[in-house]
Design brief:
Arc Repressor Mutant, subunit A, Four Helix Bundle (Hemerythrin (Met), subunit A)
Length: 226
């Protein structure tokens, strides 16, 4: 686990929220990888806290799909098999077009302009983590108008659980394949600008499906089974 100095607490930020924010960033950046254990005592010592707010933070992250708590074993970042990732991507193919369809009519002009700006930054980007951050921002912004809470929160959970595998996929694909991602994003952005829910949903579904199919060609990404 990468050691970093925790960020100072902002005004009114609870200790558990501060720990969760720190660990969330570490997991999403890949500094804490799938299957890696998170020792409560180490985190408590790092933050100068008791274990109680650390346990609370880990429970918060569990609801987000970033950690799993095991009886008598503590917490770890989930490690998914190829079959599990395939199923999760199939879930994304169904749920994300639905979230986008709910969101699209409620996106305002500023949201759409921001999507275009993010896509321009994606096309100018040259590193994997930068792409992952911007890609996440792009898609989650496109779903931000969805007011159906169980749907919107579950979509974020699915994104969290597949973050490591998107990183591995982009690393394997290399910069020579980024034109496909950018083309799909531009098609999606065009459908969003036109407020075409059907086109946007179909483009998004294909975008997610392509990643799922290409991931299946690289079983080495998933390592040994759980």
């Amino acid at each position: 686990m990468l050691k970093e100095e925790p960020a100072p607490a902002s005004g009114g930020e609870a200790a558990s929220e501060r720990v969760a924010k720190h660990l969330r960033a570490q997991i999403l950046s890949g500094a804490i990888g799938p299957g890696e254990r998170i020792r409560q005592e180490d985190i408590a010592e790092q933050f100068g806290l008791s274990r109680l707010p650390v346990r609370e933070a880990l429970r918060m992250l569990e609801t987000e799909g970033l950690t799993e708590l095991q009886a008598n074993k503590g917490a770890r970042v989930p490690h998914l098999s190829m079959s599990e990732v395939d199923v999760i991507y199939r879930m994304r193919e169904s749920l994300e077009p639905l979230a986008l369809g709910e969101s699209l009519p409620l996106l305002d002009t500023a949201d759409i302009e921001r999507l275009g700006s993010i896509q321009s930054r994606i096309e100018a980007n040259t590193d994997i983590q930068g792409f992952l951050d911007l890609d996440r921002e792009f898609h989650l912004l496109s779903y931000s108008g969805c007011t159906v809470e169980p749907l919107s929160s579950y979509v974020v959970r699915l994104w969290n659980t597949t973050q490591h595998y998107r990183r591995a996929f982009i690393a394997l694909s290399g910069p020579g394949r980024m034109w496909i991602v950018n083309a799909e994003h531009q098609l999606l952005l065009d459908a969003i600008v036109r407020r075409d829910v059907v086109d946007a949903g179909n483009i998004l579904r294909g975008h997610i499906r392509r990643t799922r199919i290409e991931l299946a060609q690289h079983p080495d990404i998933f390592g040994p089974g759980k």
